[in-house]
């Protein structure tokens, strides 16, 4: 009961943002200098991700993974933004350590959230997992600064970088083409077109040989 009360109190004090919410604005010190979320370019997507702590093994593999694929995110018009509850000097020391030992340079801003302000704002602190470390969260934020997708992982399970990139591509594709992405969709594959809302639209669909139709409400096309 005490744990449940503590969790409810935490949720009331630090409500977790949801898909479709405006991303909470903040100012923060990072390895690239001070930033404010609203100052990011208005045509850019943002992938913001937290890790539990610097100089830890799983986090090192994940942060290196983001760095190694940074060009892909650049090509997708997307800024990377990391975070952990560590000091700026710890971050810089960790960046140097990774560079010296693996040759990978973490050339994107990492928030020094030592006061936990951003972590609390985004629900990255989850008491039943840890009260002093941010869980492995990923927030996909569109150019309108709206949260479009959220991923949460526990401290002991690393994220899947292929899925992060796939999800970002799917969001951008869906926005551009007003289509939905089916199970396991990958770039270049057919996507689902919206179902008809009138009998006239239904008749047009059933007569359209360019569609791959499973049934009247499930049809795909090549975009």
Strand order across the largest sheet: 5-4-3-6-7
N→C terminal distance: 53 Å
The ordered string of helix (H) and strand (E) elements is HEEEHHEHEHEEHEHEE
Which spans of ≥5 residues are poorly predicted at pLDDT below 50? none
Mean pLDDT across residues: 91
Proportion in β-strands: 15-25%
Number of helices: 7
Number of strands: 10
CATH-scheme architecture of the largest domain: 3-Layer(aba) Sandwich
Shape: elongated
> Tell me about the biggest sheet?
5 strands, mixed
Percent in helix: 25-40%
Notes on the structure:
With 223 residues, this protein is of the alpha+beta class. It folds into 2 domains: 2-159, 3-Layer(aba) Sandwich (Glutaredoxin); 178-223, Antioxidant, Horf6, Chain A, domain 2 (2-Layer Sandwich), CATH 3.30.1020. Helices cover 34% and strands 21% of the residues. The chain contains 7 helices and 10 strands. The chain has a 5-stranded mixed beta sheet. It has a 3-stranded antiparallel beta sheet with strand order 8-10-9, with no helix packed on it. It has a two-stranded antiparallel sheet with strand order 1-2. A hairpin with a 2-residue loop joins strand 1 and strand 2. The model has no long low-confidence stretch (mean pLDDT 91).
